[in-house]
Amino acid sequence: MSNASEIRLGGKLEKQKNLERKTVKEWIKYIQEKIRNNSDYDSVYEEYKIFLENKLKEKPKNVEVVCQLAAVYNELTYQWEDIYKLLNEFIKKYENELTDEEKSRIYTNLGYYYDDQRDGSKRAIRTLRKAVAFNPNNSKAYYGLGADYYGAGKYDKSEEMYKRACELENNPIYKFEYANLLMVNGKNEEAKIILEELIKKDFEFEKEDLAKIKYIYIVNRIRLKEFENIDAQIDELMLETVNKDDFFEEEFAELYYLAGSYEKSRKIYSKFKIQDYQFPAWWLRFYFYSLKQLNEIEKLQENFKIVLKIKDEEIESIKNGEFLTEYTKSEKKEEIREIKRQIKNLKAEYEKILKTDYKPEVKIYPKFLYDCFLIDCPRHQKLD
């Protein structure tokens, strides 16, 4: 049999097996197996969509089916409006026949779709609040609210929602997000208890997720001024993770800087070529301070001269029309004013670092694990 014939036969057998799957659970199990095996599953979603659409014709009030269909639309990159319309019209049509728990389920899914990037959409927050109003025990909705309130910059509300999610469900990811928000809100002692539990207990974290927990734990120890063996912990984590998807070398330079290990922070920062960065580069102030603490004043002055030279070259380039040719004369003047403002600020900070006790502050951002709070998600749904 030729390869082409084998492929066609394999495709027919695959379609036949798909026809044999009679329940949503069987389909989800199959999709998750495909994902685990790194197999092509786009065609599976197309087949699953047909299955769900037929099921919805048979049982138009089936909440599980309509929610799964919305998830499949999402996987097949349908327009968001199609997903919103599917679920909103379903709620409107069967509002008087749905239980409160079913309404909460649909609103949780909708809240996810309204803001899948967790940027703090007001519509997503309103929708998730409906979800918890219909079911106060819906931990996923509270988790989603924690994420969205964080995105909206409402950190007290975010902490409150994550805490409630943890009270409802013993989920280590929820605990970590809650610890992050405790730290954002300056409650480092409370966060320490949770972080130590997550590190010491035998939770089944992915390697990348455990690295994030270790990183935030080190930040927590630094904030609490617990410096014993801190360098060794940073060294170990850096070897495990540096330049992986979730970590960059400069993040470890910041940890050494915060821990007062200026030789190590300088060593990392000195690898960066100043010429490769647009200014003002965020790390320069920490590099300059590290040089000062190591009494490498000449090196500090030399690097600052390089920075000024680059900024002066930018101004000359604008004046001579070597770039920004599409800009008007007034726009070029505004650009030059902005560069001069940057130079002024750089000089002021340089002088403060060189001549005073000023230490530039490093802002460490949370490293969330981003658990999927979509209740009906074929990828992540737990099967009994």
Task: Identify the notable features of this structure and list them briefly.
384 residues, mainly alpha, 18 helices, globular
What does this structure look like?
The chain has 384 residues and is an all-alpha fold. The protein contains 18 helices and no strands. Helix 10 runs antiparallel to helix 11, helix 11 (188-200) packs antiparallel against helix 12 (207-223) and helix 17 packs antiparallel against helix 18 (329-355).
Instruction: Report the count of strand segments.
Output: 0
Biggest sheet: strands, sense, closure? Answer: none
* Apparent shape: globular
Helix content: 55-70%
Question: Topology as H/E string?
Answer: HHHHHHHHHHHHHHHHHH
Termini separation (Å)? 41 Å
Compact summary:
This protein is mainly α and 384 residues long. The protein has helices spanning 3-20, 24-36, 42-58, 63-75, 80-94, 100-114, 122-134, 139-151, 155-168, 172-184, 188-200, 207-223, 230-241, 249-258, 262-269, 284-293, 297-319, 329-355.
Topology overview:
Layout: H1 3-20, H2 24-36, H3 42-58, H4 63-75, H5 80-94, H6 100-114, H7 122-134, H8 139-151, H9 155-168, H10 172-184, H11 188-200, H12 207-223, H13 230-241, H14 249-258, H15 262-269, H16 284-293, H17 297-319, H18 329-355
